[in-house]
Amino acid sequence: MMLRGLSRQARLGRWLIISMVVVVALGSLGVAYGYSSGTLQAGDMMAMACTTGPLKWVVSNDDGKVTNICSYGDIDPGDNGGGTNYDNWGGQSSDDPSEPQTRGVVCARYDKDVARTTAWMSCDRKEITVLLENAYPCYYPTVFFGLKCPDSNPGTITSIVIDNPYPDALTVTISGIYEGQTIPKCGEITGAVHVHVEQAAAQNTFYTFNVLITIDCTTCGKCDTAYAYGEEYATCFLDCGFSNWGWTNGPLGPGSYEFELWAGAAQCDTSKGTLVGWLSVDYDGSTAIVTYNVYEGNYMTATHLYVGNDRLPKNNKDIETVAPGQYPYKHDGLNNVTTDSYTVTGLSGDIYVVAHADVCWRVNGGNSWNCWSWGSSWNYWSWGNLWNYGSWGHCWQWGHWNWW
Amino acid sequence: MLSIALLLSLCVMGIGYAGWMDTADINGTMQTGYIEVVLSPGACSPNNISCSVGAPHTLQITLTEAEPDTYTCGFTITNTGTLPVKIQSIDIDTSSVPGGVDVSVTGVVKGTQIEQAGEEDDSAEGMVFVVVPENGSVSFSFDVIFSFVQWNLYEE
C-alpha cells in the first residue's frame, strides 16, 4: 500500500517535471499561431517574396499550348495552337473557345484563331494578370488556377468578389471554388475564371475586371515582444543594469525620428531578432506623437510606452524599471492592429522614449514542421485527422515526429 | 487534471491555431478587336456607266443614256479591321430602276467571308451587272448596299 503510494507520487512528480519542461521549452521558443487581417506584402520581407502567396499555377485555355499539371493531367485540352481555318496568332493561341471550359475537358471552339488570352502570375504568387487580345463578342476564354495555403496548411475561402465595371461588355464568372470552401491540409483546390464577351462590347476598346479571392489560411505565426531601436540614440537595458533586453532611446531634442521595431532581439542583438515594423516620434518640444507601425501581415496586440526626461520609467517605488506593464502609457488588448499612436503632452527638454509592443508575424515559409508540431501536440485529439492527411513525405517530416 | 491544466495554461499563453488572411487577386484586361470594311469602286464599262461609293458600304451606280446592252462595274471589298467578317446582306435598291432593266451582283454573295487585314483573303472582288433591254435609251441610278458582320455572328 505504502509502496503503491510512493509509486503514484513518483509518477506524479515525473509528470510535473515533464510538464514544466515542456512549458518552459515552449515559452522560450515562443512559437505560436497568430491571426492577422492583413496580407503579406512582397518586399517587406524579402525572404517571403515569391513563396508565400496562395496561387500555385495559372493556365489560359487560349494561349496555344496544352498545360499539364502533374496531379491533374492536361488542364486545357484543345488548346493546341494554331487555327483550323484561320490562324491569327500562330502557336501563341488556338481556335477560339466559344464556351466555358471545365478542367481537363475539351470545350467547343470556333474554327478560327482570332483572339487570344494569356495569363501569368506575379512573383509573390498573389496576383494573376489576364489579358484578352483582339477579343470580340462571343469569345469565351477560361483561365484556370490552383490555390493552396502557404506551407501546405489548411484554409477556407472567405470571400470571392468579382468587380466587373462593364457588365454590358463582358461577363465574368468563377467556377470550381466557392465561399466557405475548405482547402485541406496539404491540399490544393482549382478554380477558373470565365470571361464572356458580350454583344455590347465596343470595338477597339479596353475593358478591365477584377476578382479578389480571400483565403483564411491556418498558418504558422510567431508572437514575441518587440522594442523600438533608435540606433545611435539606443541604449540597451542590459547596459543599464537589467537582465532583460530592450532599448531606451534618447536624449531626443525636438524633431522627427523613425526607429526600427525589433522583435525577439535577445541580448539587444538584432541579428537574433526580426524586424517587424517601425516607430515614428514627432516631438515639438512640448508634445510628442509616437506611432507604432508594423509591416503588412504583422499585427500588434499590446503597446506600452514611456516618454520622459529620465532614461527609463520608474515604478511606484521610484526605482527604474523596464517592465512594460509599468510604463505610464499602455494600450493592452489591442485587436490585432497594424498601427497604434500616442500623444504625450506636457513635455519639455530632451526626452527618452521606450516603446514596447507585443507583435505577431508570420513565420517564413519552408519548414512548416515546427509550427505543426506545436499545433498537433496541443491539439493532439485531432491526431486522427492529421494522420489522414497523407502525403507525409511531402507535408510532414516523419523523422521529426519521432521526437514526440 | 495535470494535462488539462497544462493545455489550458498553454492556451492562455496564446499557443494555438489561427489564420492569416491571404488573397489571390485576378486582374483582367480585355482589348477588343474591330471591324472595318472598305468598299472601293473598280473599272466600269462601257462608258455610260459609272460607280462611286456613297454612304458607307454603299455602291452608287449611275447609267447615263444607256443604250440596250450589258453594263458592268467592278468593286473590291477590303477588310482593314482585326476581325474576320462575313457579308450579312447585299441589298439592291431598285426603286429607281426602270422596268425591264436587270441588275445583279456577282463575285460575292451573302455569307462571303473576308479575313482580317494582312491575311491572304482579306479582300474580295465583285461585279455589278446591269442589262438594259432593247427598248430605248435610259438614265438612272441605284444603290447596292452591303452589310457586314463579325464572322461568328453571321446569320444564315
Short description:
Chain A is mainly beta and about 400 residues long. Helix content of chain A is about 15%, strand content about 35%. Chain A is elongated, with a radius of gyration of 28 Å.
What are the SSEs and their pairings?
The complex is a heterodimer of chains A (404) and B (156).
Chain A: H1 2-29, E1 31-32, E2 55-60, E3 68-69, E4 73-74, E5 86-87, E6 112-113, E7 116-121, E8 127-135, E9 142-147, E10 155-163, E11 170-175, E12 182-183, E13 189-197, E14 206-218, E15 221-229, E16 234-236, E17 247-252, E18 255-263, E19 274-283, E20 288-294, E21 299-308, E22 329-331, E23 339-344, E24 351-362, H2 369-378, H3 383-388, H4 392-395, H5 398-401
Chain B: H1 2-12, E1 19-32, E2 37-45, E3 49-53, E4 58-66, E5 69-79, E6 85-93, E7 102-106, E8 113-114, E9 123-132, E10 138-150
Task: Walk me through the structure.
Chain A has helices spanning 2-29, 369-378, 383-388, 392-395, 398-401, and strands at residues 31-32, 55-60, 68-69, 73-74, 86-87, 112-113, 116-121, 127-135, 142-147, 155-163, 170-175, 182-183, 189-197, 206-218, 221-229, 234-236, 247-252, 255-263, 274-283, 288-294, 299-308, 329-331, 339-344, 351-362. In chain A, a hairpin with a 4-residue loop joins strand 19 (274-283) and strand 20. Chain A is elongated. In chain A, the strands form 6 sheets. In chain A, strands 1, 15, 16, 17, 18, 19, 20, 21, 22, 23 and 24 form an 11-stranded antiparallel beta sheet that branches. In chain A, strands 2-9-13-11 form a 4-stranded antiparallel beta sheet, with no helix packed on it. Chain A has a 3-stranded antiparallel beta sheet with strand order 12-10-14, with no helix packed on it. Chain A is mainly beta and 404 residues long. With 156 residues, chain B is mainly β. In chain B, the strands form 2 sheets. A 5-stranded antiparallel beta sheet of chain B has the order 3-4-10-6-8, with no helix packed on it. A 4-stranded antiparallel beta sheet of chain B has the order 2-5-9-7, with no helix packed on it. In chain B, strand 3 and strand 4 form a beta hairpin. Mean pLDDT of chain B is 87; it is low at 7-18. The interface between A and B is large, with 84 and 41 residues. Strand 14 (206-218) of chain A pairs antiparallel with strand 1 of chain B.
